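Figure 2 data, in text form.
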Amino acid sequence: MKIEILAIGRLRKGPAYDLAADYQGRIQWPVSVRELESKHSDSKLAQKDEQQKLLEAFSPGAYVIALDERGKSLPSPELAQKIEDLRLHSTSLVQFVIGGATGLGPDIRKRADFLLSFGAMTWPHMLARVMLLEQIYRCQQIINRHPYHKE
């Protein structure tokens, strides 16, 4: 199973970049990050443009998990079980979606197979990328019964 993160915005060199690269390097599964950007300064136009770019980036047959505040908050072991179930059911590609500063448009939420929330708090989208990579790594470790995750 391949994992692709579709993320709005470019992660620039710095602490968040270094953390993202560290976690991405630890993940044994094929994982890639595709960065998409809008050049619009108007937030409504930017969100519409970002939504269109994301919709075009979805691969046919991919299982799409969108990070959204309206989504379901899962404990890490439950997220690991969800990913393991997808692997066992021969899902070839899981695409995680991280919106930009204005969030995800309604068409992305409708297209998503699952809406995942990192809690009720609002997180900067660049930090959400690091958190997602860490959670993917944590899921891998839980599935492999490695003691990284503490209960």
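Caption note: The mean pLDDT is 93.
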